[in-house]
Amino acid sequence: xxxxxxxxxxxxxxxxxxxxxxxxxxxxxxxxxxxxxxxxxxxxxxxxxxxxxxxxxxxxxxxxxxxxxxxxxxxxxxxxxxxxxxxxxxxxxxxxxxxxxxxxxxxxxxxxxxxxxxxxxxxxxxxxxxxxxxxxxxxxxxxxxxxxxxxxxxxxxxxxxxxxxxxxxxxxxxxxxxxxxxxxxxxxxxxxxxxx
Length: 196
Known about the structure:
- This protein has 3 helices and 10 strands; from the N terminus they run E-E-H-E-E-E-E-E-E-H-E-E-H.
- The chain has helices at residues 31-41, 136-149, 172-195; strands spanning 4-12, 20-26, 50-54, 57-60, 71-72, 88-93, 99-110, 121-126, 156-158, 161-163.
- The strands form 2 sheets. It has an 8-stranded mixed beta sheet, with helices on one face. The protein has a two-stranded antiparallel sheet with strand order 9-10.
- The longest helix is centred in the C-terminal third of the chain and has 24 residues, at 172-195.
């Protein structure tokens, strides 16, 4: 079967209208790679574990010491899930302050020959991303402050130092320019887990 392009709508649980991405990926993408895309596209620090749930089955790192899992996410390609348009995958990131993403399949198209290196690619989005170690309720409170006052009431510890954070600063062109490099760096950070 020829390679296909999957278009996903990725939303952050509880803030679906404010923080979301629409992304295209190859059907040959593995689930762990989809996870790295989500972590990169939502501007996370990528220092927590993550897992997926699809049709009641759990996909996680291949180490039972960390998580109960039905499948190793590194051994499953998206096309093997046989997703139908409208179906969703749930991704949980950080099991202390769980960040939940819903990844809904919007479209499946044949990939144009020679375009494999184009993917992954962001088509659209809103919201700068998320803050690690913040619940969706905490983020909603910050967003409400920004909407009300134009800024947060206090500096946020963001990207390892106190600095301003504003969810409205989403830049599609810049995010696409940095996306593949960020995914590679994130993947490199997670590989020690996969190799143990």
